[in-house]
Amino acid sequence: ELPNRTALAVYEYYHRTLLRAHFGQAMDLASGVDRLPQGRVPEVCLATMELKTGALMGFAMVLGAAIAGASETVTSLVDEFGRDLGVALQMFDDLGNVLGIREPAKKYEDLMLHRPSWAWGCAARASAPQHYQQFVAAVGRLPDGRELEDWIDKHRLIQRMRESARHRLECTFNHLKIGLESRHVQWSVRALDEIRELGEEIGLAYD
Length: 207
Known about the structure:
Elements: H1 4-30, H2 41-67, H3 72-99, H4 109-112, H5 118-126, H6 129-140, H7 146-154, H8 157-182, H9 189-204
């Protein structure tokens, strides 16, 4: 029983999300991240995360804002916040795939399938060209993971992935707070703290 204007907005958000997610899925399946130039790998990984997990999380957030009758300013902020939060959480999920603690059978799955996960992005962003080529070669030898595990330990990939995911999560909440304050939006400190705590709990689940 939503007002017609709100219902129309919800449908528009829904179809926009559907389109974005399809773009993200296409990139996920067809990018061939192992064949990309090293300098392009991080941006492709981030774009894929934004179009998939980011788009879905943004839709979840903006749906609540729209139904609650939030202003266009607030809805836009919440949409952006959801997108960035989705990217941060996907970084943690990609970390979990490399660790393989909770789902050992799926360990390194994203790497073996050459999906643009944050493991690829972080390795490309933080490595010298010769070291990145060693990483690509080690991935190519999976499921024999001995060489890859040595590379991961030597180049601190786990630590780098975890640090970048935590940094992204913190920046996401700070950006929302600054956006609300700069636009003089009435907001609940308690609500923001609760969402922040939830995000941190999810992040800690991958430690």
